[in-house]
């Protein structure tokens, strides 16, 4: 078996598992919608002035953050499958194949990324009908999917790294919860990060160190437009070039760490 054929086989297996679990697909779509309705409409109704959010409604403001949340939760929790594969001895069969462990890791990553992209696409389509302020063009969608892909690779790698070191699903869920919730709440998905510079500078620097912040920043600046269809400069907190460089750097580093984690993984 060639490495490329093995990579494809592992990816295909992960995709088939995803599409056979209808409850998982439905739940992953309903959760972001619940956030948009409850958080977006609930908190948005208590905000009288939209100027703090670039002149758009609060539910529209958090829409890019909800896209990133979809990728974040789906991708990191994807690492749970490594724990289950070890418990049912499927992972032993895969590792017994004439494949490099880096190939196995990349196949798992691509499977998790594909799952995330399917869910993001559903939310993007729904957003087109729900939020008229959201701008969908070939350029904006290209930027969105580029950053969603980089974020999915980064977060899937984190989930697989954690999963390769855990022995029980309960332990995995506990550790991952301690990872994903701070990453989401400190990503600027629900507020502008620059507002923290005077109120809580230590939290601002936590957002700067958070890879999810750069995906939220790029997608929000790309998708949301103000009067006359002009970009909202208040949303350009880091700049697209820096967003791409930092998130791409996180992606490469975590791929390297993930490959090492799989090479040293014990069954």
Explain the layout of strands and helices.
Blueprint: H1 3-20, H2 22-45, H3 58-61, H4 63-77, H5 80-87, H6 90-96, H7 101-130, H8 138-165, H9 169-185, H10 196-199, H11 201-208, H12 211-223, H13 240-263
Question: Could you describe the 3D structure shown?
Answer:
- The structure is a single chain.
- With 267 residues, the protein is an all-alpha fold.
- It has one domain.
- Helices cover 75% and strands 0% of the residues.
- Helix 7 crosses helix 8.
- The longest helix is centred in the middle third of the chain and has 30 residues.
For the structure shown, list the relevant keywords.
267 residues, mainly alpha, 13 helices
Mean pLDDT across all amino acids: 83
Number of strands: 0
Helix content: over 70%
Distance between the termini: 23 Å
Q: Sheet bearing the most strands, described?
A: none
Instruction: Give the overall shape, derived from the CA principal axes.
Output: elongated
Judged by helices, strands and strand pairing, the structural class is mainly alpha
The whole-angstrom Rg is 19 Å
How many domains? The number is 1
Low-confidence stretches: none
Element-by-element helix/strand order? HHHHHHHHHHHHH
Specify the number of helices. Answer: 13
* Beta-strand content estimate: under 5%
Quick summary:
The chain has 267 residues and is mostly helical.
């Amino acid at each position: 078996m060639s490495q490329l054929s093995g990579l494809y086989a592992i990816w295909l297996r992960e995709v088939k598992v995803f599409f056979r679990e209808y409850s998982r697909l439905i739940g992953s779509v309903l959760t972001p919608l619940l956030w948009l309705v409850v958080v977006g409409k609930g908190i948005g109704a208590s905000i009288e002035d939209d100027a703090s959010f670039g002149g758009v409604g609060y539910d529209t403001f958090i829409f890019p953050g909800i896209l990133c949340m979809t990728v974040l939760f789906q991708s990191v929790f994807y690492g749970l499958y490594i724990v289950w594969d070890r418990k049912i001895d499927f992972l032993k069969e895969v590792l017994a194949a004439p494949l490099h462990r880096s190939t196995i890791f990349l196949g798992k990553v691509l499977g998790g990324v594909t799952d995330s992209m399917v869910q993001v696409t559903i939310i993007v389509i729904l957003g087109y009908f729900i939020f008229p302020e959201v701008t969908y063009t070939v350029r904006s969608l290209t930027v969105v999917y580029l950053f969603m892909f980089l974020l999915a690779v980064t977060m899937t790698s984190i989930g697989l790294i954690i999963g390769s070191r855990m022995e029980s699903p309960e332990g995995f869920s506990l550790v991952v919860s301690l990872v994903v919730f701070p990453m989401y709440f400190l990503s600027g998905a629900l507020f502008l990060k620059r507002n923290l510079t005077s109120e809580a500078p230590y939290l601002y620097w936590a957002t700067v160190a958070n890879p999810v912040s750069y995906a939220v920043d790029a997608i929000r600046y790309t998708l949301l437009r103000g009067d006359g269809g002009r970009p909202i400069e208040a949303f350009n907190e880091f700049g697209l070039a820096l967003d791409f460089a930092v998130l791409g750097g996180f992606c490469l580093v975590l791929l390297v760490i993930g490959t090492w984690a799989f090479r040293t993984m014990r069954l």
